Amino acid sequence: MRVHPRVRHALIIALLSLANASCDDAPDKGKPDPAPVMKEAMVLDGVAITRKEIEDWLPYLREVSPSTGHNSGMRYLLDRYLIPMAFARTKFATRHEEQRKNAEGIAKVLGDSAGYAELLERTRKFSGAEVLTDLLRTDLPLPEQRWLFDDANVGRVSPVLETAQGFSLVAASDKQPGLTKAFDRVDAILVRFYTHTAKDHGKWCQALKVRLGSLAPEAIKVHPEFRDALPNWPKPKK
């Protein structure tokens, strides 16, 4: 049977299209599967730091120190706050949760509209409460800094703030501007629900850094976007 040239030409094109589609659908055994993209910013010895935790702080860090490099700011944030807080949640889970409940109990009694005077009165006999003057940002953990040095918050009680050492409720009675934001000062009441004393917490943080510095490479997983922000931990002495 003779086939019209036009029909034969159309059949050839159709067969070639089917062959190409089959090749495209077949797996390429010569190429490895792409590595899965990390959802977390990093996972250190099984403890995760999320991208959101880091990104939530970047506007504040840029506002306070515009000249600080992007990676340097993240490194400071991770080293001083996010990493020790993440490990403390696991290491001291029971005490951590107890202190959270204590802080939330006081916050519930105060209500959402409480001011400096109410916090002072309610915690007058509480051993974790301090009234301090002329505080610099560097005198305080990052969550307390961000609340106390915001002009809109002067006189207002913070929500429960989580730090690497536990929890706190804070309120500023006055704020004095400095030559730059880094030298602003506040007078404030700090009501802290900490898991450890400052001395014991400092020792634990130093031991944590040594531990992180001794981790095997496979125990440190970091998204490429955050590799340059990883703190330089001390290596264990041989």
By secondary-structure content and strand pairing, the structural class works out as: alpha+beta
Structural domains: how many: 2
3D shape: globular
The SSE string, one letter per element, is HEEHHHHHEHEEEHE
Mean pLDDT: 87
> Low-confidence parts, pLDDT < 50 over ≥5 residues?
21-26
Count of DSSP H/I helices: 8
Rounded to the nearest angstrom, the radius of gyration is 28 Å
Q: Specify the helix fraction band.
A: 40-55%
Number of strands: 7
Strand content: 15-25%
Reported for the largest beta sheet, the result is: 4 strands, antiparallel
Which strand order spans the largest sheet, edge to edge or round the barrel?
3-6-5-4
Oligomer: single chain
Question: What's the end-to-end separation, in Å?
Answer: 88 Å
Secondary structure topology:
Blueprint: H1 5-25, E1 40-44, E2 47-50, H2 51-55, H3 58-64, H4 70-91, H5 93-110, H6 116-122, E3 129-135, H7 142-148, E4 161-163, E5 166-176, E6 185-194, H8 198-213, E7 220-222
Antiparallel strand pairs: 1-2, 1-7, 3-6, 4-5, 5-6
Kindly describe this structure:
The protein has 238 residues and is of the alpha+beta class. Helix content is 43%, strand content 18%. The protein has two domains: 36-92 and 196-238, no CATH class; 111-191, no CATH class. Strands 3-6-5-4 form a four-stranded antiparallel β-sheet. A three-stranded antiparallel β-sheet has the order 2-1-7. The longest helix has 22 residues, at 70-91. Mean pLDDT is 87; it is low at 21-26.
